[in-house]
Amino acid sequence: MSALGLASQALEIVAALAAAPLLLGWVGQCRAWLQNRTAPGLLQPYRVLHKLFNKDSVLAANASPLFRTAPYVIFGCMTLACGIVPTLSTDLPLSPAADAIALVGLFALARVFAALAAMDVGTAFGSLGARREMLVGFLAEPALLMVFFTAALISNSTSLTSIVRTLSAQEIGIQPSLALAAVALIMVALAENARVPVDNPATHLELTMVHEALILEYSGRHLALIEWAAALKLFAYACIGMALFAPWGVAHAQSPAALLTAAPVLVAKLAATGFLLALLETLSAKMRIFRVPEFLGMAFMLAVIAMLVRLLLGAGAQ
Amino acid sequence: MSAAPQLVAVLALAAAWLAIGVAGLAALHRLHFVARVLFPAGGVVALLLAAAALPALWGTPQAAVLPIGLPGLPFHFRLDGLSAFFLVVLGATAAGVSLFSAGYFRQSEGTAPGLLCLQYHVFLAAMALVVLADDAYAFMVMWETMALASFFLVISNHRIAEIRRAGYLYLLIAHIGALGILLCFGVLQANTGDYSFANMRAQHLSPFWASVAFLLALLGFGAKAGLVPLHVWLPEAHPAAPSPVSALMSGVMLKTAVYGFLRVAYDLLPVQLWWWGVLVLALGLASAVLGVVFAAVQTDMKRLLAWSSIENIGLIFAGIGLALLFAAYRMPAAAALALTAALYHVASHAFFKALLFLATGAVLHATSERSLGRLGGLLRVMPWVGWACLLGVLASAGLPPLGGFVSEWLLLQSFLFTPGLPNAFLNMLVPAVAAVIALVAALAGYTMVKFYGVIFLGQHREDKLAAAHDAGSWERLGMVWLMAGCVALGLFPVQGIELLAPVTELLVGARLPDSGSSWLLVPVAAERASYGPLIFFAGVAASFGLAYVLVRRLYHGRLRRAAPWDCGFPWQTARMQDTAEGFGQPVRQIFEPLFRMRRDLPTAFDARPRYAVEVGDHFWHWLYLPLARLVESAARVIGTLQRGRIAIYLLYSFATVIAVLIWATR
After folding, report:
1. Which residues of B touch A305 (CB under 8 A)?
2. HEC states along B29-62?
3. Is the terminal CB of chain B with fewer CB neighbours within 10 Å at N or C?
């Protein structure tokens, strides 16, 4: 563990914390362009966070300490998740402590806390949101794990830094297993980040919402932390997608110069990912909640098929 | 005898348990003495047992012969690494449960406290001696003692017909299992007439007879462990038993079945065949999926936990099956990884499931409600139980950084890196199985959120819940002990695996590689995968703390209390919260073919519309009820012999005598 490694680790986390709301703003901007609307400024998410942090937190009369702790736990989980996924460098001191499976566990931990906090006050919306969130979760989590396993079978490691190193060393070309896994990951990412077609981040109509129902009771700084954590989660998923399917440009050498060249590449890739997300959201319509199991079941099957394809082709190649 | 210090100590401690039980019999109705002296003493004995067995993990096997039992048939006992590991799990779990029991049992359990104390401690002693037994005779005697003691504990509230029925079902399946084990030992001794395990190890059975013995062992131990399709007794017996007993049965007794299975499959049988592994893996997976899916739709909190035990046993057997597969193909390193995962799950499941059952016991005492539909909001009135249960729930959902995640992680690693099995089909199949494990783990999270959220969070669904009292200090002590176990298993997996290394070396002849650091868990090699829960935990905790401090520093900590947001509809009641049935609905819909469902839907014209759904188990209708009908019709046919008149019976005797004479003089 070198000083430079520590520095790049710290830089990565700070960059994620700073840039995550920007990514959210960028996606909103692209969506507005594609839908012929006038967009709020790119910095709108920061203004929202600032406003929420300045407001008083209004707590339901019967909320327990669990309700107040959960935003910090969720925020902590997402911060660590952004520290694990290699975005700028593969020389990360946190990497040996948590591999891809632990990353999935981290997302699960945050999700369980969010669901429990939503049930804490005991309103109809909170528990409805909790149930729907857990429903999305138990279908999306195995699919995400299978996507990681496909990549892990290729690189023979579940460590995310090793996966990025192996994949970026390969010649550019479409691997069938990775192509299938990419489709599965996009579907999972849409569901997990509460985007159209599974959920609509802009809606407050009761019957269609999942994530918004979940956090209905939160206000003030707690809501700010949760919104920031949601932005971090989107950032982490974007980085996972880039790490698995476009791993080029990440610094492998331990030098500040490599980090400096990695940063603009990251920005470009994030901008492209954000645009792709906005395009997908614009092109698809929100589906009924009962259709979500089919959607995510398909993602799961695609990911399993990706793994099987890898095993078939991998056995042939060896 | 001095050559076996740990074995003598463990036997003496088991005897101490028996003595405590007998003391309870002497103080039959003195609740205070039984609760405040005998149960804590039992807890101390449990701790000492774990401490005494611990050094035996690394030592050479110790043996002793006790001249008790029938003349000429002394009991053989032996303490090796495998026994020692299960003794440590037994002692550590039982210590927490006994401390909890000191504050739990009351006069109203239906059985006199002294008698309960006897049954409880005989149960504990029998479990310890099962693990130590070194001949079939001692094993069967202890196994049956364990079954009977637990049967009486299950029906301790025997005035309720439902509980008696549950106990009978348990006894029946336990004895089908015992029959399987008995026949298995019969095959293993290979006509030598010597039933000691040492003799069985020396026999070289043909693959056919080895397979017969293996299948009998799978039947026998599978019935006790609750493997599909012999799982039906678990969801009946666990809710019937008092909660500390459920905790022991689920946490430890199911594990003695795992022990017995490991003993026969790896130690007593000379070879392992690959299809055994596939069979065990398939049964384990079926149990895991069925268990978790059924747990998700339950509306009784203890029944939910019982189904979750079936799921966890399924995961353990899946790991054992994979280890068998690797052992059959002579891949000791891979087998060691799979077996380590299974054994780690044995330990972590013992802790968190005991903790969860104890929490349900505290809830049951405080509210006298088991149905999830009448609970809610208990975290505010029972904070100790609520927070303890939260930890158990997180461990049970397999979330980092707790114990459940470590075993799940190891299991996924062992499935993922199937290093080139010679059988191409299996090579494909085994990583795909990881997908099923992932699904089970995710569903376990769903189930646990439902379990915890409906019981402890939200508003009280009944008014009387506001008056519920928290657990007493003995109960808290017991739960804190088990919580410490969950946390320790989660944060210090390297040290935990250190304990498992002698066991895997004994069974499959290999161990996990030394990671070279005391905080990084490395299953195969550092570049392949590693997991450091301490760093992981520190990372989450640091960002948690930083966020907390910075938000306070940069902004403020102002807080206002107000009524919950009602969306403009002012008549919010507790009945508007999502229910356990509501939580089960998506699972019922997605996994519909697995259930036998009966729905009562109201029509639009019902004056008093009611919705009811009943979820049944297919196995009752596919296996048990046809079997019961078959037995009944066979009994009717045989019953025609019974005429109830003495003349006819004399005629039978006469005919028999004539037949014997003809046969003898032929």
Report:
1. none
2. CCHHHHHHHHHHHHHHHHHHHHHHHHHHHCCCCE
3. C
Give per-10-residue mean pLDDT for chain B (666 aa): 80 95 90 91 96 91 87 89 95 96 81 91 96 94 95 91 93 94 94 90 91 96 93 93 94 96 92 91 95 94 95 96 91 91 95 96 91 91 95 94 92 80 79 88 95 93 89 93 95 90 89 78 82 90 93 89 83 85 89 88 85 87 92 93 88 94 90
Q: Is B182 exposed, middle or buried (0-12, 13-18, 19+ CB in 10 A)?
A: middle
Query: Of B83, B77, B72, B80, whose CA–CA distance to B193 is shortest?
Result: B72
What whole-number distance in Å separates Cα of residue B551 and Cα of residue B559? 13
What is the rounded CA–CA span in Å between residue B377 and residue B458? 5
Q: How far apart are CA A68 and CA B561, in angstroms?
A: 12
B-chain residue closest to A117, CA distance: B457
With 50 as the cut, is the pLDDT of residue A29 above it?
Answer: yes
Token pair of A197 as six digits: 């077609």
Report the predicted TM-score, pTM, of the whole model to 2 decimal places: 0.95
Return residues 22-81 of A near B (CB < 8 Å): 53-54, 56-62, 64, 66, 72-73, 75-77, 79-80
Kindly report the nearest CA distance between residue B544 and chain A, in angstroms. Answer: 5
- Tokens matching residue A314: 């991998």
Helical packing angle, B493-508 and B301-328, nearest 10°: 50
Encoded tokens for B165: 């029925």
Taking the Cβ of residue B591 and every Cβ of chain A, the question of whether any pair is shorter than 8 Å is answered with no
Decide if B532 and A138 are in contact by the 8 Å CB cutoff: no
Report yes or no: B590 and A292 within 8 Å, Cβ to Cβ.
Answer: no
